[in-house]
């Protein structure tokens, strides 16, 4: 009896057959990333009470979604419904709000319009994507589920509500308003850090039709102390997706230190409405002059790609304090998945690792080729890769090296050397470019394949340096190449050659070539990874599947 149908990432054409709805034992359907067209057959809901997941992402399905024949169908076992990146039209299919067990809903990149029903907020969704449609009206209140701007961006300007702009008519800070922005430490048993934002609007208000709002030049209503110093004359720049971040919203935000990096300190900040943002306070004295800094920031603020974390806003104060504002994503880094305790974590089989590597490669390729002047990442490493529950990866910290004064840039290169990601040519030129990014990606791909941390061990008294390319070269010479792979990479695959594992190893070594000119471009890397996909990709969409719950991974 057919229980699971996994035919994703092929070249299937035609329509979804009506007969599919008569496979009475079918619970999981994955036909994503094919060339299927036409409407979704109504018979699919014949399986309603059995279905656990339906994934049809990335086809050319059209028309409106058919309703279940039974008006009160709840599809009680359905946890994931992914119909994103199709051509589905009509209004929001309100019957979906009856699917009380639904955890993942993706209707992004379709042609849906009208209002999103308020009843959607009653579902206990963990993942939601309604972006790039034509929805309008007020967003539902999602209760304990907090979704970022990316879940709703790309819709009608009339779409409003948290986390987008307020639906009520309110006064907004104009381009002549003043912003002072200060991070202050607080003592207390609950709050570890507080974000205190003081501001004062200029009496003369101006309107602007520009795509970004700038708030500059003036005096603070009140002064604050702490890490960022006092406020004062400064500039607040809002980019796409950050328009809702008015100073009123974050005046009483509280936060805590998440991490300290070479660039500065990262805070998790909670807003009064329950939303959360991530703030990066750049190190004092680490950045170039005011005008040079702002020019780079404006370029970074325009970058939008599904595998890159977007910059939502930037603040530059009179006394040199600089704050980058991002969406907060409660997900883990690739470093966490690979190197910290694996107990209870999802199995990182080859299909999942390949997906992560391909996401990273696509993000880097966009930086290198998506702009008139290429943008380098400058700090590619596993700690700067965020991985969600479905093993989609997004890069952080890209382009920040261009903000740094030479001494700080040199320090970051030194850290890259210690961590094993530094390209040989950086020893003499000390300036990152697209080829040094490719080298760092090669090390990262080896890290994904081998499962070992590159560079210095970091343990007290341990001065061992793990050179991943040399490790592979030795294994090849000794004809023990298969022993170099992480054990989870090889489990469940039919053949390292047929499933693209060997090709990925060769690609990684090509990226790590000592001579920069012979390294492939990131576009070429993406092409090779796409051409050598793993044959069995059925485990890509099992976010709750952990090592303790299953035996042999797919």
Helix coverage percent of residues?
10-25%
Strand order of the largest sheet: 13-14-17-18-19-21-20-16-15
Classified in CATH, the superfamily of the largest domain is: Transferase(Phosphotransferase) domain 1
Please describe the biggest sheet, giving its number of strands, its sense, and whether it closes into a barrel: 9 strands, antiparallel
Describe this structure in words.
It is a single-pass membrane protein. The protein is an alpha/beta fold and 554 residues long. It has three domains: 157 residues, Alpha-Beta Horseshoe (Leucine-rich repeat, LRR (right-handed beta-alpha superhelix)); 93 residues, Phosphorylase Kinase, domain 1 (2-Layer Sandwich); 201 residues, Transferase(Phosphotransferase), domain 1. 20% of the residues lie in helices and 20% in strands. It contains eleven helices and 26 strands. Strand 25 and strand 26 form a beta hairpin. Helix 7 packs antiparallel against helix 10. The radius of gyration is 25 Å and the shape is globular.
Provide key terms for this protein.
single chain; 554 residues; alpha/beta; Leucine-rich repeat, LRR (right-handed beta-alpha superhelix); Phosphorylase Kinase, domain 1; Transferase(Phosphotransferase), domain 1; 3 domains; 9-stranded antiparallel β-sheet; 6-stranded parallel β-sheet; 11 helices; globular; disordered C terminus
Indicate the topology.
Blueprint: E1 4-6, E2 28-30, E3 37-38, E4 53-55, E5 60-63, E6 80-82, E7 87-91, E8 104-106, E9 111-115, E10 127-129, E11 134-138, E12 159-160, E13 178-185, E14 193-200, E15 213-216, E16 234-238, H1 247-250, E17 254-260, E18 264-270, E19 276-282, H2 290-301, E20 311-317, E21 322-327, E22 332-333, H3 334-339, H4 350-369, E23 385-387, E24 393-395, H5 406-418, H6 426-429, H7 434-450, E25 455-456, E26 465-466, H8 468-477, H9 487-490, H10 501-511, H11 522-531
Helix pairs in contact: 4-7, 4-11, 7-10
């Amino acid at each position: 009896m057919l229980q699971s149908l996994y035919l994703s990432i092929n070249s299937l054409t035609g329509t979804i057959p009506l007969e599919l709805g008569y496979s009475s034992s079918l619970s999981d359907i994955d036909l994503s990333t094919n060339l299927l067209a036409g409407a979704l057959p109504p018979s699919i809901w014949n399986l309603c009470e059995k279905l656990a997941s339906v994934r049809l992402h990335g086809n050319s399905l059209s028309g409106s979604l058919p309703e279940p024949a039974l008006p009160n169908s709840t599809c009680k076992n359905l946890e994931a419904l992914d119909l994103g990146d199709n051509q589905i039209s009509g209004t929001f299919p309100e019957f979906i709000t009856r699917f009380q067990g639904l955890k993942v809903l993706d209707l992004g990149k379709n042609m849906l319009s009208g209002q999103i029903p308020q009843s959607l907020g009653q579902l206990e969704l963990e993942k939601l994507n309604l972006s790039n449609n034509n929805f309008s009206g007020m967003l539902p209140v999602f209760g304990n589920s907090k979704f970022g701007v990316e879940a709703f961006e790309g819709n009608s300007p009339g779409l409003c509500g948290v986390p987008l702009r307020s639906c009520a008519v309110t006064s907004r800070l104009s381009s002549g308003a003043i912003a002072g922005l200060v991070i202050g430490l607080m003592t207390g048993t609950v709050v570890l850090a507080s974000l205190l934002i003081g501001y004062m609007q200029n009496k003369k208000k101006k309107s602007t039709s520009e795509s970004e709002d700038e708030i500059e030049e003036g005096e603070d209503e009140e002064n604050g102390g702490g890490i960022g110093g006092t406020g004062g004359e400064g500039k607040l720049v809002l980019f796409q997706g950050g328009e809702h971040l008015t100073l009123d919203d974050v005046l009483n935000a509280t936060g805590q230190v998440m991490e300290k990096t070479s660039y500065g300190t990262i805070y998790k900040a909670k807003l009064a409405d329950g939303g959360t943002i991530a703030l990066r306070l750049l190190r004092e004295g680490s950045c170039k002059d005011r005008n040079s800094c702002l020019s780079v920031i404006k370029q970074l603020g325009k970058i939008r790609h599904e595998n890159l974390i977007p910059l939502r806003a930037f603040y530059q104060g009179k006394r040199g304090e600089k704050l980058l504002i991002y969406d907060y994503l409660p997900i883990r880094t690739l470093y966490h998945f690979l190197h910290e305790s694996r107990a209870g974590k999802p199995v990182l089989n080859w299909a999942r690792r390949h997906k992560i590597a391909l996401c990273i490669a696509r993000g880097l390729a966009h930086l290198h080729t998506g702009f008139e002047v290429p943008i380098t990442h400058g700090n590619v490493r596993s700690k700067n890769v965020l991985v969600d529950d479905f093993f989609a990866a997004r890069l952080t910290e890209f382009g920040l090296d261009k903000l740094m004064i030479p001494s700080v840039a040199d320090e970051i290169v030194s850290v890259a050397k210690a961590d094993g990601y530094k390209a040989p040519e950086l020893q003499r030129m000390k300036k990152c470019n697209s080829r040094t990014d490719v080298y760092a990606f090669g090390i990262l791909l080896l890290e994904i394949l081998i499962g070992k941390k590159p560079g210095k061990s970091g343990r007290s008294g341990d001065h061992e340096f793990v050179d991943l390319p040399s490790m592979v070269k030795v294994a090849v010479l000794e004809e023990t190449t298969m022993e170099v792979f992480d054990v989870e990479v090889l489990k469940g695959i039919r053949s390292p050659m047929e499933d693209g594992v060997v090709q990925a190893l060769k690609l990684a070594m090509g990226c790590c070539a000592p001579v920069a000119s012979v390294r492939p471009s990131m576009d070429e890397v993406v092409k090779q990874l796409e051409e050598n996909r793993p044959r069995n990709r059925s485990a890509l969409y099992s976010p709750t599947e952990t090592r303790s719950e299953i035996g042999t991974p797919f």
